[in-house]
Design brief:
Layout: E1 7-8, E2 32-36, H1 44-55, E3 60-65, H2 70-75, E4 81-84, H3 88-96, E5 100-103, H4 111-123, E6 127-129, H5 132-135, H6 141-145, E7 152-154, H7 158-164, H8 168-185, E8 188-191, E9 196-199, E10 205-208, H9 220-233, H10 238-256, H11 264-278
Helix pairs in contact: 1-9, 1-11, 3-4, 9-10, 10-11
Bound molecules: ligand NPW and adenosine-5'-diphosphate (ADP).
Ligand NPW binds at residues 42, 44-45, 105-106, 131-132, 135, 157-160, 193, 218-219, 221-222.
């Protein structure tokens, strides 16, 4: 088998595609991100994603919330909006109003989550599937694959990856496994870890080592899903958004350093954006 030498992730790969706001623009032109929340006791993960999406520049961000979680979400949200969905049909309708929807963080490993994932994929312009949105297809990954498109990004850690692509990691190693999974599923893959691999269905692969070990903290992956979705909502292609989000997420962790918790990551984004903005030619 030919050895793949993946490209190293760096801003040169994607910064020229950064979705800066137009001087004449308004918030709707900066894109609408939706983040699907879980039950009342598990809403924080989606809120981390939502805040990251807003910080990275999406013009509007909505928490798409089961009715029982609306109050807890509303109490904890200010600029981020809250919209209730009663079933997968009404979620589908809300997702159709977004440019990208993130689903999975603390969504719950339930049949309802599986239905909700399919509904989001049917109507959202683009989607990020993380955590439970992947785990829930453990016994029938092909049921998921048939709904995936090149505008979908999957963001598994190794445990989640193994559930949806059993045996691939052991058989091929991380880089080849991510590449194969992207090709088989037809979606962009972010295989997370100390070295994160980003793979596109067309065979492009990038490896990211620009990250701090302090990222090993609860909720940091939810923030990555939100950054990715926030960039896609602004019109960045799924592959460029995936590469950019992973680098920026890593940069935020390196800038913060020891003591970082997931909540700190979105607050590091303005400094990173300022340095990108200043470097525009
Ligand atoms: N604030 C909140 O609300 C938060 C809510 N969260 C939500 O919690 C839910 C559960 O998600 P989760 O990722 O914590 O656990 P889960 O899917 O059960 O897998 C864990 C098992 O997988 C394995 N494993 C292998 N490699 C691994 C790796 N690199 N990183 C991690 N695990 C790895 C390992 O098994 P082992 O290899 O040790 O046998 C491990 O025991 C989900 O809905 C998520 O969104 C979180 O986002 C946190 C913040
Ligand atoms: N040792 C490490 N070095 C660099 N990055 C790491 C390390 N451990 C985890 N990460 C990163 O932290 C994030 C963890 O995401 P995830 O496992 O989904 O956590 P959670 O479900 O708690 O949000 C990923 O982006 C992963 O790449």
């Amino acid at each position: 088998m030919p050895k793949i030498n993946p490209e190293k992730n760096s801003p040169e790969l994607w910064l020229e595609h950064w979705p800066w706001p137009d001087a004449e623009g308004h918030k709707y032109r900066r894109g609408h991100l939706g983040c699907v929340t879980g039950p009342p006791s598990a809403t924080g993960a989606a809120r981390l994603a939502a805040r990251a999406g807003l910080r990275i520049g999406a013009g509007l961000v909505s928490l798409l919330s089961p009715p029982a979680s609306v109050l807890v979400n509303a109490v904890h949200s200010t600029a981020v909006m809250v919209k209730a969905f009663h079933d997968s049909d009404s979620l589908s309708s809300l997702a159709s109003e977004t440019n990208c929807t993130v689903i999975g963080p603390a969504a719950g490993v339930t049949e309802a989550t599986a239905r909700n994932v399919i509904s989001v994929l049917a109507t959202a312009e683009s989607a990020v599937l993380d955590a439970d949105a992947l785990t829930v297809f453990k016994d029938a990954p092909k049921d998921l694959f048939k709904h995936l498109r090149p505008t979908t990004v999957l963001t598994p850690h190794e445990g989640e990856f193994e559930r949806v692509f059993p045996g691939l990691l052991d058989q091929l190693g991380r880089i080849e496994a991510a590449k194969s999974a992207s090709s088989v599923s037809g979606a962009v893959m972010i295989l997370k870890g100390a070295e994160t691999v980003i793979a596109n269905p067309d065979g492009r692969v990038v490896i990211n080592r620009h990250a701090s070990p302090f990222l090993a903290t609860a909720g940091s992956g939810d923030v990555l899903a939100g950054i990715t979705g926030g960039l896609m909502a602004q019109g960045m292609s799924a592959y460029h958004a995936a590469c950019a989000a992973v680098w920026v997420h890593g940069d935020a962790s390196l800038r913060f350093g020891p003591g970082m918790i997931a909540e700190d990551l979105p607050e590091m984004l303005p400094g990173i954006l300022a340095s990108f903005y200043a470097s525009r030619s």
